[in-house]
Design goal:
By secondary structure, the chain is an alpha/beta fold. It has two domains: 144 residues, Rossmann fold (3-Layer(aba) Sandwich); 116 residues, 3-Layer(aba) Sandwich (Rossmann fold). The protein is 39% helix and 22% strand. The chain has a ten-stranded mixed beta sheet, with helices on both faces. It starts with a strand and ends with a strand. 37% of the residues are buried.
C-alpha cells in the first residue's frame, strides 16, 4: 500500500493535481493524505484561492478549511477509479514545509504530489513558490504536475544525467517502481556542450545503470547542446517523453530546468510531469 501526500490550496491547479494522482495510481491501492495548511509564509500573503474551489466556496458559502477539505475528499471519492483508494484529510496551522516534513515521517509517505503553480495570480510563468520550497527542502520523492497537464499513459520516462555520481538504492528503486507501475521505458539522456569523452568515473556510473536496467526497457542517449533546457526540449519532442525523472543532487540545476527555463521556446515544464528524487 503506497502512501501519497497531496498538499492543496483549493485552487484549480491543486484540483488538477488530485485528478492526475487518481489516474497515475489507478492500478494500485493507495492511501491519499490531502493536506491543507492555513498558515502562510510572509512572501505568500498575496495568494488567494482561485478556479474551481473559489467558485465552489462562493456558491455554497463554505469558508472554513475543514469544510473545504470535506468537500475535496467527497470529490476525490467520486473521481476515484480504484476501490482501494482511501482518502484522509489533514489540516495544519504551521508552515507548509514544516507540515509536510511532519506527515512524511508520521504517515511514512512514499510520494508527495503537487501542482506547479500555487493560487497566486501574480506570476503565471513561474512554478509556485510552495512547490519549489518542498522540492528543495523535503527529502521525499515529489511528483510535480504542470498546471495544464492531463494524464496520458506514460510510455517513455526521460532521465537526464551527467554520470558524475553513483546513484543510491533509494533513487534507483523509485525509478524502477515508476517504470513497473506505468509499464514504461527509461530513456537515459546525457547532454554536453562539447563531445568530450567520459571520465573513468562516468563510465563506471553508466555501467552501473546498464547493469541495473538490464531487465527493463531502456536506451542511452547523448545530445550535444550548448543549452541544456533546449536539449531537453528537443529530446522530449523527438522521443515523445511523458515524464522527466531527475535527482535533486544539484538544486540550482533543478531550479534552472524546472522553475525558470531561460529560453522562450521551452515548454516541456508546462506539459510534462517531473519526478524529483532525493537520495
Amino acid at each position: 500500500m503506497k502512501n501519497v501526500l497531496i498538499p492543496t490550496d483549493f485552487s484549480e491547479n491543486s484540483h488538477n493535481a488530485l485528478r492526475y494522482a487518481l489516474d497515475y495510481f489507478a492500478d494500485i491501492p493507495v492511501n491519499f493524505y490531502i493536506l491543507h495548511v492555513s498558515l502562510k509564509t510572509p512572501h505568500y500573503q498575496d495568494e488567494e484561492p482561485e478556479g474551481f474551489f473559489e467558485e465552489f466556496a462562493e456558491n455554497h458559502t463554505i469558508h472554513s478549511p475543514g469544510a473545504l477539505l470535506k468537500e475535496e475528499l467527497k470529490t476525490c471519492r467520486l473521481l476515484a477509479k480504484n476501490p482501494n483508494h482511501v482518502f484522509y484529510p489533514l489540516h495544519e496551522n504551521i508552515l507548509l514545509v514544516e507540515a509536510i516534513r511532519k506527515y512524511v515521517s508520521e504517515k511514512e509517505i512514499h510520494y508527495i504530489l503537487m501542482g506547479t503553480k500555487g493560487s497566486s495570480k501574480m506570476n503565471r510563468n513561474e512554478i509556485g513558490s510552495n512547490t519549489s520550497e518542498v522540492i528543495t527542502k523535503v527529502k521525499c520523492p515529489v511528483l510535480v504536475i504542470p498546471e495544464h497537464a492531463k494524464f496520458t499513459k506514460i510510455k517513455n520516462v526521460a532521465f537526464p544525467t551527467d554520470y558524475n555520481c553513483m546513484y543510491k538504492n533509494r533513487v534507483i528503486n523509485t525509478i524502477y517502481e515508476t517504470l513497473k507501475l506505468q509499464k514504461a521505458a527509461l530513456r537515459i539522456l546525457n547532454i554536453k556542450s562539447t563531445n568530450h569523452e567520459f571520465t573513468h568515473t562516468q563510465m563506471e556510473n553508466k555501467g552501473f545503470l546498464q547493469d541495473f536496467l538490464k531487465e527493463t526497457k531502456h536506451s542511452f542517449h547523448f545530445l550535444e547542446s550548448k543549452n541544456i533546457e533546449a536539449g531537453i526540449q528537443e529530446f522530449v519532442e523527438t522521443w515523445e517523453i511523458d515524464m522527466i525523472a531527475m535527482v535533486a543532487k544539484n538544486l540550482n540545476f533543478i531550479q534552472r530546468l524546472l522553475f525558470r527555463p531561460t529560453v522562450k521556446s521551452i515548454s516541456y515544464h508546462t506539459k510534462i510531469p517531473f519526478l524529483v528524487l532525493h537520495e
